[in-house]
Amino acid sequence: MFDPERFLLSIQDFAVLYGLKVVVAVFILLVGLWLIRRITEFTYGLMTRKNVDPSLRPFLKNILNIVLLVLLIMVVIAQVGLEITSFVALLGSAGLAVGLALQGSLSNFAGGVLILTVKPFRVGDFIEAQGQKGTVSIINIFNTVIKTEDNKTIYLPNGPLASAVVVNYDVESHRRLDLSFTVDAALPVARVRQVLERIIATDERIVKEPAPSVGVEKLAGQTMTMSVKVWVLRGDYRYQQISEALNEKVKEAFEQEEIALK
User: Fold this and answer.
1) Which residues contact 101 (CB under 8 A, 6 or more apart)?
2) 10: domain CATH number?
3) Fewest Cβ atoms closer than 10 Å to its Cβ: which of 68, 84, 184, 204?
4) pLDDT band at 2, cuts 50/70/90?
5) What integer pLDDT is reported at residue 152 of this predicted model?
6) How many other CB atoms are found less than 10 A from the CB of residue 62?
7) For residue 235, what are the CA distances in angstroms to 33, 172, 241, 243?
8) Domain that residue 73 falls in
9) Domain Mechanosensitive ion channel MscS C-terminal: where (predicted)?
10) Phi and psi at residue 233, in whole multiples of 5°?
11) Does the residue 261 lie in any domain?
12) Which is nearest to 246 in space by CA: 183, 188, 189, 197?
């Protein structure tokens, strides 16, 4: 038979036993949320002062915020008196399921963090990777966007990109331009070299140091291939404009000197 007095006593006992724990848990939750906000803001400001890549800062801030929230929830659950091991097991199972479902995305995310941290290339660099060449336009956390010389937009997943061979053409200030010209082997080498050196000397885009070089690259039957190696600023090397200009100058000079290209 239902006893109201005993029921009220049970409620009072429960309130005495758990009421204070609930109040303390709520207090811990509120203080913890305030602390998490302050910690994440301080960390974001620290990353700004340390010049951490702007694309990386929000993601690191969010990761820190999630980790701290999970820890806070575990503390609150323990304070209330609930079994925390079940929560940890549930959290682990959920994390495993999400990780398996998003395996590719997580790989790209990790690759993006690695690229933004190690910086094998930066926005504006001309790179070659995964069979593609182009100027880095955007480095996102999941992919890197490059623009090709013919204005195509290519999205490279950061996971494979972080572990692939990347050729960065813009790390050094100068690049070497190699050209070859095949002429009749009967021509005097000094004459052909003189024409090529004159062209090199009159082009202001070719730097003096390292010094240019002109020589015989190959002899084959009745032909002789002259090798021209010059150094230019990396900006002048772009889009093959200087090589095209030098080829035109060499052709015009050879025609004036009656030197036939083979």
Assistant:
1) none
2) 1.10.287.1260
3) 204
4) very low
5) 93
6) 11
7) 51, 11, 10, 13
8) 4-101
9) 178-260
10) -65, 145
11) no
12) 197
Q: Are strands 223-233 and 132-139 parallel, antiparallel or unpaired?
A: unpaired
201: Cα separation from own chain's centroid: 39
The pLDDT, as a whole number, for residue 244 is 86
Look at residue 242 and tell me if it is in a domain: yes
Q: Is residue 25 part of a domain?
A: yes
In a 10 Å sphere around its CB, with 0-12 CB exposed, 13-18 middle and 19+ buried, how is residue 128 labelled?
A: middle
Given a contact cutoff of 8 angstroms between Cβ atoms, the answer to whether 201 and 211 are in contact is: no
Residues 182 and 162 both lie in one domain: no
d(CA 78, CA 214): 79
What does residue 122 show for φ and ψ, rounded to 5 degrees? -130, 170
- What is the rounded distance in angstroms from the CA atom of residue 188 to the CA atom of residue 149? 39
Q: How confident is the model at residue 97 (pLDDT cuts 50, 70, 90)?
A: low
User: What's the chain's average pLDDT?
Assistant: 81
Burial of 127 (C-beta count, 10 Å sphere; 0-12/13-18/19+): buried
| Dihedrals phi, psi of 111, to nearest 5 degrees | -65, -40
Per the CB < 8 A criterion, the answer to whether 262 and 237 are in contact is no
Domain count, the chain: 3
Q: Looking at the structure, tell me whether residues 94 and 14 fall in a common domain.
A: yes
